[in-house]
TrEMBL record, chain A:
EC number, UniProt record: 2.3.1.-
Protein name: Dihydrolipoamide acetyltransferase component of pyruvate dehydrogenase complex
GO cellular component, one term: cytoplasm
Span of domain Lipoyl-binding: 1-76
Organism: Jeotgalicoccus coquinae
Keywords associated with the record: Acyltransferase, Lipoyl, Transferase
Role played: The pyruvate dehydrogenase complex catalyzes the overall conversion of pyruvate to acetyl-CoA and CO(2). It contains multiple copies of three enzymatic components: pyruvate dehydrogenase (E1), dihydrolipoamide acetyltransferase (E2) and lipoamide dehydrogenase (E3).
UniProt-annotated stretches for the region Disordered: 92-116, 157-184
GO molecular function annotation: dihydrolipoyllysine-residue acetyltransferase activity; lipoic acid binding
This protein's record includes keyword Acyltransferase: yes
Phylogenetic lineage: Bacteria, Bacillati, Bacillota, Bacilli, Bacillales
Automatic annotation (TrEMBL), chain B:
Keyword Oxidoreductase recorded: yes
The protein's enzyme class: oxidoreductase
Assembly mode: Heterodimer of an alpha and a beta chain.
One MF term in the entry's GO annotations: pyruvate dehydrogenase (acetyl-transferring) activity
Catalytic activity reported: N(6)-[(R)-lipoyl]-L-lysyl-[protein] + pyruvate + H(+) = N(6)-[(R)-S(8)-acetyldihydrolipoyl]-L-lysyl-[protein] + CO2
Family annotation (InterPro entries): THDP-binding, Transketo_C/PFOR_II, Transketolase-like_Pyr-bd, Transketolase_C
Organism: Jeotgalicoccus coquinae
Domain of life per record: Bacteria
The protein's role, per its UniProt record: The pyruvate dehydrogenase complex catalyzes the overall conversion of pyruvate to acetyl-CoA and CO(2). It contains multiple copies of three enzymatic components: pyruvate dehydrogenase (E1), dihydrolipoamide acetyltransferase (E2) and lipoamide dehydrogenase (E3).
Protein name in the entry: Pyruvate dehydrogenase E1 component subunit beta
UniProt EC number: 1.2.4.1
Entry keyword set: Oxidoreductase, Pyruvate, Thiamine pyrophosphate
Pfam families in alphabetical order: Transket_pyr, Transketolase_C
Length: 417, 327
């Protein structure tokens, strides 16, 4: 009997959630058969078997999160006499390590999942076709995935074995997708995997579970525009990154949340937890992916510090360098929808947070000030709230406080540092 | 079409070109009465006379200098340097005069001339009869450098070189002279300069090379096919200026590139080819660019085992091809 532990699915990943068991106790599995789907902050991956054998016990139920290294199931290895308590550090190495109960006297190279480095062309093809790398079988040196392997995969589809298993055990997605109708001529079909799959899952979960309510306020941002324009050139020169409008809003939100801590909370069925830390998630799109990196302790940062964090995180997101840490711990989301020209939008809340603020485009409009008509820079702030936690009153007060902060900036007196 | 050796194809090109155009003439050491040390120009003097097939003194700078002057006055000289490494005394005439005259005179003058020279080893020629010297000339704008790999290419490229209105260096692999035989079109036959040629199609690896190595690479590719891998072979044909488009296309096709030259590795022509691929094909590469070349020792030795060690052959190419295929 061999215990199999939670594999380490990437750097900086310390735990994983068992999404789905693809096998039952008593099932006979072959080496490399998918055993379960594990979900981490970054990816959902199938964990393959490292043995031929019979599943004897499942130790972690679906939906539970366990740390890397914790046993998740037991297997009776074929040919009996398997004993070694294998510590699995990584799936990759594991496949080679505990190959057989026999001692390793031949070098454990050749074949199967050795070299996980990707050549530029393989990386490009995987990105273009949205392929889950775990479904690829490498035939190159040390099991490296070659361009030909990807081309073969694209031509033949995934190797049948894992595909059948997955289809059999997860019938769910099919009924959820009534999209393509027979009369529509279909073009390229994009396989949903990895980050896209995770985004989809969380969006569905959020919009089905949370009773969203929504309100919008129009804010006069003229003072802010003037203040920023006054400093932006010199700021860019001195600091090396942009002093964006978005930074002002993030700063204002971080300050106002102090006064309305209930918006900085999370919902967990029978408890609402109000957070001391104000960690602001910001949404960053990267072509076909959406990331929400987090500005930690935003309330402790100056405007400059916030502008710098935003710049750093956005760059990381666009170059795919965000780590799990960068994305963990958010307590409230500020979304820069104005960046792509939107003037009004309804955000879907980033669970378990309870609100999301959309900062829309700043637009010049004629506005009455007293009896005078003036040209002002106006912006809409749209707030989505979890109506289980928040009511219109507190949401309105919060939004109004943000509005006042922005409107009361003084281009002559206020500093940007 | 007649089946000719690489050497006969070159002689045929000279014959046809001299028949077509009275301005074409041949000069060099022993090219006349003796017909050249390799017999490339045999029979030319009998046919065209002493005024069009000149035996010159043993002075390469003189041979090339004479050619530059004649070419600028409207002739089309085809100079022969007996062995490629003997060209060094004439390098000033080539790089400073022939290559630059059109530019320097703002198009008023040009030098339509060809310098032929046998190069390469594998014929027990030792230090001064085995060298590859193309790398000296492949970074001088104004020059064209051509190395044919088959009899038909040798004829077509040489005729095109003679008709070209600027100086062309035409290096012939001396081991190929009698080793390679093939169908060669008769009469006037030209192949455009500056165009590489796919000599074999394949989709597993791309081999880019020139000269005799093309033939060796084709032999190695046939052997590699038994292992289930198909090699694409691109023959550069013109080393300067390089056919970048063809190089990028061939490299991108498979993403696995092997570059081969018989020259010393460092600073050789394939280093430039590698740079072109590195600059243009990063996102199409599936393996590190591999190079196979002569070792960085001063010249090809005489002792047969040491010559074999230095010289390229199908077996070395096959081994490297297999390594790249399996990468």
């Amino acid at each position: 009997m061999t215990e199999i532990t939670m594999p380490k699915l990437g750097e900086s990943v310390t735990e994983g959630t068992i999404e789905n068991w693809l096998v039952k106790v008593g099932d006979h599995v072959s080496e490399y058969d998918p055993i379960c789907e594990v979900n981490t902050a970054k990816v959902t991956a199938e964990v393959p078997s490292v043995h031929d054998g019979v599943i004897t016990e499942i130790l972690v139920e679906e939906g539970k999160t366990v740390e890397v290294g914790v046993p998740i199931y037991k297997i009776e290895v074929d040919g009996g006499a398997a004993e070694p308590e294998v510590k699995e550090e990584e799936v990759e190495t594991a496949a080679v390590k505990d190959d057989e109960p026999v001692k390793q006297n031949k070098p454990a190279v050749k074949k199967q999942s050795g070299d996980r480095r990707l050549s530029p062309v393989v990386m490009r093809l995987i990105g273009e076709h949205n392929i889950n790398i775990d479904e690829l079988h490498g035939t190159g040196f040390n099991g490296r995935i070659t361009k030909k392997d990807v081309e073969k995969y694209l031509a033949d589809g995934p190797s049948e074995q894992p595909a059948q298993k997955a289809a059999a055990s997860t019938p769910a997605p099919e009924k959820a997708a009534p999209a393509a109708t027979a009369s529509v001529k279909s073009g390229e079909s994009i396989k949903v995997s990895g980050v896209r799959k995770e985004i989809a899952r969380r969006m569905v979960q959020s919009s089905t579970e949370i009773p969203h309510a929504w309100l919008m306020m129009e804010v006069d941002a003229t003072n802010m525009v003037n203040l920023r324009n006054k400093h932006k050139a010199r700021f860019k020169e001195q600091e090396g990154y942009n002093l964006t409008f978005f930074s002002f809003f993030v700063k204002a939100v971080s300050e106002v949340l102090k006064d309305y801590p209930i918006l900085n909370s999370s919902w967990d069925d029978d408890t609402i937890t109000v957070h001391d830390d104000i960690n602001l998630s910001i949404a960053v799109a990267n072509e076909d992916k959406l990331f929400v990196p987090v500005i930690k302790n935003a309330d402790e940062r100056s405007l400059t510090g916030i502008a710098k964090s935003i710049s750093t995180l956005a760059n990381k997101a666009r170059s795919n360098k965000l780590t799990g840490d960068d994305m963990a711990g958010g307590t409230f989301t500020v979304n820069n929808t104005g960046a792509f020209g939107s003037v009004q939008s309804m955000g879907i809340i980033n669970q378990p947070q309870v609100a999301i603020l959309q900062v829309e485009s700043i637009v010049r409009k004629p506005v009455f000030i007293g009896d005078m008509l003036a040209s002002r820079h106006m912006v809409n702030l749209c707030l989505s709230i979890d109506h289980r936690v928040l009511d219109g009153l507190v949401a309105g007060q919060f939004l109004k406080a943000v509005k006042e902060k922005i409107e009361n900036l003084d281009p002559d007196a206020d500093s940007v540092y | 079409m007649a089946k000719l050796s690489y050497l006969d194809a070159i002689r045929d090109a000279l014959f046809v070109a001299m028949e077509q155009d009275d301005d074409v003439f041949v000069l060099g050491e022993d090219v006349g009465k003796k017909g050249g040390v390799f017999k490339v120009t045999e029979g030319l003097q009998e046919k065209f006379g002493e005024m069009r097939v000149l035996d010159t003194p043993l002075a390469e700078s003189n041979i090339v200098g004479t050619s530059v002057g004649a070419a600028m006055m409207g002739k089309r000289p085809v100079a022969e340097i007996q062995f490629a490494e003997y060209i060094l005394p004439a390098v000033n005439q080539i790089l400073n005069e022939a290559a630059k005259v059109r530019y320097r005179s703002d198009n008023d003058w040009n030098a339509p001339m060809v310098i032929r020279a046998p190069f390469g080893g594998g014929i027990h020629g030792a230090l001064y009869h085995s060298q590859s010297i193309e790398s000296i000339f492949v970074s001088t704008p104004g020059l064209k450098v051509v190395v044919p790999s088959t009899p038909a290419d040798a004829k077509g490229l040489l005729m095109a070189a003679i008709k070209d209105n600027d100086p062309v260096l035409f290096f012939e692999h001396k081991k190929a002279y009698r080793l390679l035989k093939g169908e060669v079109p008769e009469g006037d036959y030209t192949i455009p300069l500056g165009k590489a040629d796919v000599k074999r199609e394949g989709d597993d690896i791309t081999v880019i090379t020139y000269g005799l190595c093309v033939n060796y690479a084709i032999q190695a590719a046939e052997q590699l096919a038994n292992d289930g891998y198909q090699a694409e072979i691109l023959d550069l044909r013109t080393l300067y200026p390089l056919d970048k488009e063809a190089i990028i296309k061939a490299a991108s096709k498979t993403g696995k590139v092997l570059l081969i030259t018989e020259d010393n590795l460092e600073g050789s022509l394939i280093s430039e080819v590698s740079a072109i691929i590195g600059e243009n094909c990063l996102y199409d590469l599936d393996a590190p660019i591999m190079r196979l070349a002569g070792p960085d020792v001063p010249s090809m030795p005489y002792a047969p085992p040491m010559e074999d060690y230095f010289m390229m052959n199908p077996e070395k190419i096959y081994n490297k091809m297999l390594e790249l295929s399996e990468y």
